[in-house]
Specification:
This protein has 360 residues and is an alpha/beta fold. It contains 10 helices and 13 strands. It is globular.
């Protein structure tokens, strides 16, 4: 007998997930869209291929003595590809590869080639800190990565090292320009907005993006730091950043929304070209349009970045679970998704896992 789907809370002491509700094996788990109880259809899968990283940004992971998962617990590329095949049959058509830092995992381009061939998958993106990108950009583009999100929190090397607690700033710039040379369909630069740190970087980053033709997005600092030091007072609000940019560059006007599920609100400069986006999960949550689910590097499915529950796909992938069992598990996870993350509510519970353990 195939094992029933299991909610795994081994990494958390917080309340258990809701009771699973889709274990009726008489129902075809591949019938119909992957929809939650609020009518949100899920088509976007974020896959963390590793929890390891080559820098130590304080908003993501500890500075030292990081406890990574044993390599034997990390899903193989073959296991990940099987998961993607099942998810694609449920209607998932977009993948984003994350980490940790995905480029530290050997053979990543080979994995991209595998999932690019899965029927139904028509878009593959990658989030990276770009330190290793210069040497891998061409290979990843050829394998099937279409879009890049590159973390660039500062243009001042000292500020970068304050945030990342490591060196490597010049390699990031090398990686950015290497990606531009091989002509990915879209390259976005992501900056985490942190009060007391980011303000002096806003205008230089805006000029850099405009000069070189990149899209720049500012992301509000979220409570997913490993050391538990996040405070709402550290959130540099998107509205404040927009005001600073308009003082320097003139008015910003909103762009038409091409994808209702995109987390960013995008603007263009009235005088000149360039796109600036704001992702404001703290002050302007976009949960009502969320169509994402996540798979951690060791095979736990999450229906929200801030979820306190996980659904264990690895025990099915490595056991006797069928594709139908895996599809039911995915559906159970999505069905149990909450209306929103509730960061600003009294009921909010910070996940026990930091960003590097979940997948950015």
């Amino acid at each position: 007998m195939n094992p029933l789907p299991i909610v795994n809370l081994s990494t958390s002491t917080q309340p258990a997930a809701q009771t699973l509700c889709s274990t009726n094996k008489s129902h075809d788990p591949f019938a119909g869209p992957l929809v939650d109880s609020f009518g949100r259809v899920h088509t976007d899968l974020r896959i963390s291929v590793t929890d390891r990283c080559n820098i130590r940004c304080f908003y993501c992971m500890p500075a030292e003595n990081v406890q990574f998962r044993p390599r034997s617990e990390i899903l193989t590329f073959e296991e990940l590809t099987r998961f993607v095949r099942v998810a694609a049959r449920l209607g998932v058509n977009k993948l984003r590869l994350t980490g940790g830092e995905p480029l530290v995992r050997r053979g990543l381009a080979r994995f991209v080639e595998q999932v690019a061939q899965v029927p139904g998958i028509d878009d593959i993106a990658l989030t990276t800190n770009a330190i290793l990108l210069a040497e891998q950009a061409a290979e990843l583009k050829a394998a099937g990565v279409r879009r890049l999100n590159i973390s660039l929190d500062a243009l001042n090397a000292a500020t970068f090292e304050r945030i990342s607690r490591r060196t490597g700033f010049e390699k990031i710039l090398d990686g950015i320009f290497a990606a531009q040379r091989v002509e990915f369909e879209k390259i976005k630069l992501n900056t985490v907005a942190i009060r007391g740190i980011t303000e002096p970087e806003i205008i230089p980053l805006g000029k850099f993006a405009l000069e070189h033709g990149f899209e720049l997005r500012f992301i509000e600092f979220m409570p997913l730091d490993a050391e538990g030091n996040w405070d709402n007072d550290q959130v540099l609000r998107g509205a404040e950043i927009r005001e600073l940019l308009e003082r320097e560059f003139g008015p910003l006007e909103p762009l038409p929304v091409e994808n209702p599920h995109q987390p960013a609100t995008d603007y263009r400069f009235v005088r000149g070209s360039g796109v600036i986006g704001f992702i404001n999960p703290v002050t302007q949550p976009f949960c009502s349009d969320c169509n994402r689910l996540r798979l951690t590097a060791e095979g736990q499915i999450r229906n929200c970045l801030f979820s306190i529950a996980e659904w264990d796909a690895r025990q099915l992938l490595r056991g006797t679970g069928s594709d139908e069992d895996l599809a039911r598990l995915i559906r159970d996870c999505v069905t149990n998704k909450k209306a929103g993350h509730g960061i600003n509510s009294e009921e909010f519970l910070k996940p026990s896992r930091a960003m590097y353990q979940i997948g950015g």
